Protein 1
Amino acid sequence: MDYIISAVRTPAPGKTQMLLKTVVSDFEKNVGRGMVTFGNTGLIISHNPIENADVLEQIQDSFLEGNSVSESLAKQEADCSEPIRFLLREIIATIDPSKRSSNPKYIQRFMMRAKPGKAVDLLEGLLKNHEISNGNFNVSAMAENPGTLIMSKPVDHFNEIRKISDLKSFRDNFRNKGGADLSELVASMEGRIMRIAYMNRGT
């Protein structure tokens, strides 16, 4: 698969639980492969893997024609305080299958924005560290802004989440193994921890 479409929903007051159940039910009955998450910000975000650019274009064409997906999203949007936002990410590197969590409950992400002119260097550094770690995390990039890169990893339990106090030792560990020091390439970084309400990896 080459892309991931993420749909970001902001529930209306008092509608969070109902909207989450609706989105998960829709995935279980109609979508199948993908993931639904929610977090402390109140956002409910679904993630749909797309095999290639041709499939992505077909999905968008079908949406414009008014298919069942557009009808389902319209019903969900009625329980949102603002329109559903869509984000498109390109998958760059994935976790080695042998390192996947068996039954993940959380996913941790670090969204890094490259300094001006450093997007390619940041990507190369992330991929170098991905190789050194033997594929211990996912790497993706915002399709609309390739200077924004995302490092993510699903984990089974909250105590496996990497803490802020661990970041220095995490960086030093890569340095000691010949990895890249990303701190010199990143203008800003934002971390997110989301609870997984639904996950289907497919085949």
Protein 2
Amino acid sequence: MAGALTDWGVAVVLVIYPIAELSTVSFFGSYSDKIGRKPILAASLFITATAAFLFGVAHVEILAFIFAGLFGIGAASKVTTTLSMIADCSSEDNRARLMGYYDLSTLMGLAGGFGLGIILLELGFAPNLLLFTAAGACALAGVLTLILIKETRVISQEEVSIMELLKEVARDRRIQKMLPVYIPIISLYGLVISKTKKIVEEYFDITATDLILLFAMLGISLVVGIIIMGHLSDRMRVRRPFIVVGLIGFGALSYMLVAVPFDSLWTNGLWILLPILGFIAGAFPPAAMAYLTDISSAEARGSTMGVYSIFFGSGMIIGPLAGQFAYAMGGLFPGLAVLVIALIAIACIGTYFLEEAVPTSEKEI
């Protein structure tokens, strides 16, 4: 955006985005169960490209809010179809691994792109240039999707009502039990995304080189953690222990980033904990997404992934707003630090009520 947003303006953009996603994601998920994944995936990439370009040329705050909604629609259609495609191709033997590889691809775009964006902005690159580059990349991805990607939906649902598919998923108590686990952790994602740049600029005396080193340590350790933990989850045929371990790792990592002065990480030798906690946090994404697929039916998989996107959108609403409130009330500490502890505690307690979903016969193989 050509003009700068206030703190609350940033929070509003980060809220409008998931609201738009929430209001459309169920439709896209269920519709992909009816007509297939590929056409919706290609459309989602072109929608996102359009949103990024328009966001780059916006000059007033209200336009940024509108285009943030368009981003949300693009995300709704993209997340449900890509997750459904991975789930369509997976089995209990490789589900966590495939979901882990999917998370790695999204990590490059979300966490990796976010970190790279901060670094490039610190180096003096214009925000508009970054948005236009992202728009071009999304448009190219849409073209490649039409040319290279094959349809994965194999069960015909053309005569099934979208509302019936959604009701089937919403009535599943196993999915309902996931609410107190997924929403708090995704709220923490939203909190980190909305506040990291401000924290780095205002509280850390950090050079661009240090920033690159920080993101490199976290990024590499998280990638390795996702790969190894995904393989272990499939090999051991369990999800819950990896979900809990990943939650604790991500919570401890988030706490260190908001409550520990950056300089002390180096002077006190605490920096070694960053890659360790990044590796541990890598246990959560593949196990959590594999669990969601374990409890879904092939006939309503798109609808199930749509429900996950509702979890994601809800968390991305709660996280930025709660983060802004906590920061306004108590700053980094105790404000944000206490909020991080509370979110992780709720998510960890929620895992107690989850039931392992991998079939017993599979576990005994």
Protein 3
Amino acid sequence: MDTQTILIIIALLLLVCYMNQETNRKIDIENNKYIKRLITNGKPVIEGNDNKKSTDKKSTDKKSNDNKKSNDKESKNINFRKEIENTHKRCPHTGMKSKIIACIQYPPLNTGFLVSLCCPRCLSEIQSDFARPQQDHNYKITKKGEYYYFHGKDKKGGQIAPKCTLENTKIVREITKNELSTPS
């Protein structure tokens, strides 16, 4: 092989390496976008936080309003987290320490809600109760303000019951350190 052929081969290899790195970079960007959409269900993680500099008053006012909305959202998020921390310590069925997180289906609202329970038996009893006619339910879910609450047999207090979503499941699991219930 002569020197010119070797240089051509080296140049081709460098070109292939560059193209591979560029392709991998684009794939990585798309993967990150996909994961972010999956985790946040398509919603921005923090709304109203654009990093563009603005010189006109309208844009500044809009940013101020966006920041207020963001602060309100963060405040609601803090309240939501505190409510989970306070109400998910005990199983609403037995009063024992909660150990699992379960998504219960509530037919009257045709929606699934997350609750923390002590055992799969409680989950089974609650779900069986919801399979009966609504007037015969020993358990119920009510809306108070912007949150839903699950009420056990005594109907006192209640456990905040976020809707079953990937994001809410991650939040409840992070706060309670409970395991996810597995279907039996």
Protein 4
Amino acid sequence: MHDEETKKVKIALKFYNRFTKHIEINFNEKLVRVYFSLDPYTFYLTSNTEKILREQEYMETSAEKLRKF
């Protein structure tokens, strides 16, 4: 690749890595990686709001989630 193309690829990968994340899910005894894009609104959460959301997320156990389902 030419230097200009290499530079553009690096910029694109940086953008992709910033706005996408992944999780790994055990599905049918296989570990499957699932990619998803981040909602741009999440970048504007205050640290306090983010803390509250994380605390609420971790308070729910798997059993509680199953009961709600």
